From TrEMBL:
It is found in: Membrane. It is a multi-pass membrane protein. It comes from the Bacteria. The keyword Chaperone does not apply. This is Chloride channel protein. It holds the Pfam family Voltage_CLC. The chain crosses the membrane at residues 20-41, 78-99, 173-191, 211-232, 252-271, 291-314, 326-344, 350-369, 381-406, 412-430. It comes from Desulfoluna limicola. Residues 469-528, 534-592 form the CBS domain.
Length: 597
């Protein structure tokens, strides 16, 4: 890892590594504490809002348990109808009063901070995001926990980096480590959390390599701390599904297409809803989440299982199965409740709902094929697991981390082969859309890497590659009189003039700027020869030199053209290379890279 090794050796290297290691441990501890606090708040909110007020007690997944004894209050749909609106009202007021950037799903905001803000997140954002998300999600709003906890971890890491006066690059890496720690701990998937933090930044299958080790260290610490409080084990409990029949790959391919179409629909509905609410210019921003909450409540009035987290229904689909109609309404209804809850300006994540939507659609496809070909598709529950992975891959462009995510969340590693197939197909078919709008295509398009890539690209191009733009310019003899040069100068647009001796070797150079001090001295101009004006301290370049070094020479004395000389004899002039030609070559190379991407 660059942060631990760059520019350090021996005792200094050990000190440097220990310093950064301690930073990542601190980030993991804070992110783990944030996950614990957020989970407690969510449990309390679900108990006092959904259970105590509406009598709605959704079943938790196997890895989680009620912190408080459920009430015996009878289920009341009418309270459930208006509860998300009340939650949206308070959440909207809180967000738009204190931290407007905390609206929506937090992971996308963290991605934006990484690429465009030097990893900087205002310190109040994680606090507001935690409270607002708790209210949104525990009053029936549909969303996930990864967005808030990602901003908690990322926000603290950004705060720490700022206090330590670290560079933007170092702050970005620490911020990404906070994302990995938060997500890896609350979903009990430390490896996936680290990979997710480095993969979710880009649309292409590309990892931010500098992030993986820091995020891994922080994620392990946060996961251990979280599990010490809430117990070890995976979020879901899954039967030992096995893949043994290659014919089953056919139904899995069908599942891939279904997941991509559902993912496209999800993204369109989500951002269509967001655009709709942003277009309500006559409505105060803090009221919009209340309107979205009311729309969510209307859907929940008829389909209560589409509200809140929904993980318990996926747990049931894995173990005992759910009716087709319930799975279908869970998937489609969750798309709309999530869009209304988060797209209206509410606060929450999109990974959690994606897991539920994908698992439900996987269950639908698995159950249908089980009825059609029971000898091939023997376990519809396996399609639930693969559906989780494939769907989030389709909407997020994160195939590798998602496969690991679902495997760790379900403690099921026997379905890696069909998961790899489905995620690969979903990624290939779903590249045109994403739920994370702030993802950039690749590192070339990221402002965070602009300087690094400029150097890397320039170092790959040599002067010899630009010989077609190296200009052959008229020479000036060192014995030429200034009067003769004035006549020559009046007939040319040339700005830099190589000075040659009688052996036709380069001995000096001057620019049009250098003659300003002489051109108006009428009394002495007939005494001056061009050797007197030229500088003999010539900055030159050779065909083997890279453009990064050439640009450094341009800026060394703020010149716009360099003499290109032979490798073995710097007195032999080949031609003049302009700064504009170098920059144009760089821009052309960048465009080629983007086109290939």
């Amino acid at each position: 890892m660059v942060l631990l090794t760059k520019g350090a050796s021996g005792r200094e290297g050990i000190y440097n590594a220990g310093k950064w290691f301690s930073y990542f441990i601190i980030i993991g501890l804070i992110a783990g504490c944030g996950s614990i606090l957020f989970h407690y708040l969510c449990q309390l909110g679900v108990h006092y809002f959904m259970d105590f007020m509406a009598g709605y007690r959704p079943t938790p997944p196997a890895g989680e348990h009620h912190l408080l004894v459920p009430t015996t209050r009878p289920f009341n749909r009418w309270i459930l109808l208006f509860l998300p609106a009340l939650g949206g009202l308070f959440s909207g007021w809180l967000v738009y009063t204190f931290a407007p950037e905390a609206e929506g799903h937090g992971t996308d905001a963290a991605i934006d901070a990484y690429h465009n803000k030097g990893g900087f997140i205002r310190s109040r954002v994680p606090i507001i995001k935690t409270i607002a998300s708790t209210i949104t999600l525990t009053t029936g709003g549909s969303g996930g926990r990864e967005g808030p906890i990602a901003q908690i971890g990322a926000g603290f890491a950004s705060f720490l980096a700022t206090k330590l006066k670290l560079s933007d690059r170092e702050r970005r890496i620490m911020m990404a480590a906070g994302i990995g720690a938060g997500v890896g701990s609350i979903f009990r998937a430390p490896l996936a959390g680290a990979l997710f933090a480095s993969e979710v930044l880009y649309r292409d299958p590309e990892f931010e390599s500098d992030v993986i080790i820091p995020a891994g260290i922080s994620s392990v610490v946060a996961y251990c701390l979280y599990c010490l409080v809430f117990g070890w084990g995976s979020l879901f409990e899954s039967p030992d599904f096995l893949f043994r029949n290659p014919l089953e790959l056919g139904p899995y391919l069908v599942l891939s297409v279904v997941l991509v179409l559902t993912g496209w629909f999800y993204v369109k509905v989500f951002y269509g809803t967001e655009k709709l609410f942003k277009g309500m210019t006559g409505v105060p921003n803090h009221l919009k989440p209340a309107i979205g909450g009311l729309c969510t409540g209307i859907i929940g009035f008829f389909f209560a299982h589409t509200l809140a987290f929904g993980y318990g229904f996926i747990q049931t689909a894995l173990t005992t199965g759910l009716p087709l109609t319930m799975l279908l309404t869970l998937a489609i209804g969750k798309i709309f409740t999530t869009s209304f809850s988060i797209g209206s300006g509410g606060s929450g994540g999109v990974f959690g709902p994606s897991v539920v939507i994908g698992g439900a659609m996987g269950g639908v496809v698995g159950e249908l094929f089980h009825r059609i070909m029971p000898g091939v598709v023997t376990e519809p529950g396996a399609f639930v697991i693969v559906g989780m992975a494939g769907f989030f891959t389709a909407v997020s462009n994160t195939p590798i981390s998602t496969i690991i995510f679902v495997s760790e969340m379900t403690n099921s590693y026997h379905l890696l082969l069909p998961s790899l197939l489905v995620c690969s197909v979903c990624f290939l078919l779903g590249q045109k859309f994403t739920i994370f709008e702030n993802q950039v295509k690749n590192k070339v398009d990221s402002p965070a890497h602009a300087g690094e890539f400029m150097v890397e690209i320039l170092q790959k191009i040599r002067v010899k590659d630009l010989m077609h733009v190296v200009k052959q310019v008229p020479h000036v003899h060192e014995e030429m009189g200034f009067m003769a040069f004035k006549r020559f100068f009046s007939e040319t647009k040339q700005h830099y003039f190589p000075v040659m001796n009688k052996e036709d070797r380069l001995v000096g150079i001057f620019s049009s700027t250098d003659i300003r001090g002489v051109i108006f001295l009428k009394e002495v101009e007939h005494l001056i020869v061009m050797r007197d004006i030229a500088t003999t301290d010539i900055i030159t370049t050779t065909p083997s030199e890279d453009l990064n070094m050439v640009l450094q020479k341009f800026t060394q004395k703020n010149i716009d053209s360099l003499p290109v000389v032979q490798e073995t004899d710097h007195g032999v002039l080949i031609g003049m290379l302009d700064r504009r030609a170098v920059i144009a070559s760089y821009n052309l190379q960048v465009e080629r890279m983007k086109t290939r991407g």
